[in-house]
Amino acid sequence: MTMYGVYSWNGGASSASILADVVRLLTGGDVAGCSAACNKPASSVAGVGAGSWVAVDAGYGVIRHAGIVAGPGVTARASISGSGRLQLAVVDGWDAGPHTATHAANPADVSLSLAAAGSVSFLAGDGVLVVAASDWSLWAIAAEVKRDGPAMSGAPLKSGAILIGSGGAHYMARLKTPGSAGETANAYVSVQSAFGSLSGSSARDQLERLYLPMAPATVTFSQVPVEELQGVSLVGGYAQSGDTVAVDPSDTFQVLKAGASLFAVLKA
Prior knowledge:
Distance between the termini: 8 Å
Low-confidence stretches: none
Mean pLDDT: 93
Number of strands: 21
Largest sheet: 6 strands, antiparallel, barrel
């Protein structure tokens, strides 16, 4: 199940109120209950509550999804940057007492300046979270790697959360160092198609319907395979961030572009 929508804020709104409203919507709240910072006529939510994300430390923008059964789930943090933009990160080992994490990935900008009226688009699905600026020039995906491979298997308390960014830099909060003992914090990873390069042309299915080739997204660290991503695919063809792709009449995917890569997340 997926929840998605647009949050718009008024000019002059406080960044703290904007952050609180965003957390409210990402965790299943409705627009009507948002603060005075919200431009309610320009905001909307479809599938309220469907994403199953819950607040862990709402005042600090920390939310969580239970994620894959064998792991501790996906914990994401929304925050405000020093330059006044909304940011998204993934964290591991969040402690609501001192409001700190044992491990955290570099945050990514996901909005334009909050100083002027603006908006973000968002999508909250099963273990996948997307937040994007109004023009889709900035965005991030918080997701989770599967836990079957040697990099994650046998570590049930260690998060497999990953942050995929519009600038092409992708990070995991922590990950087993493949070449030596110990772990790497804020591990810089690569994300690619499980089937190599995908055709830029449409293909035909058994019913002669056109579709864009799509493949599971996989993660590597220092050229060592980590695992497939849960809920995130790569798609061929030509599209821009903010576009949607209908794979069949019942499945529509949100597309997000980083360099030459087109990421796809189930929207509806």
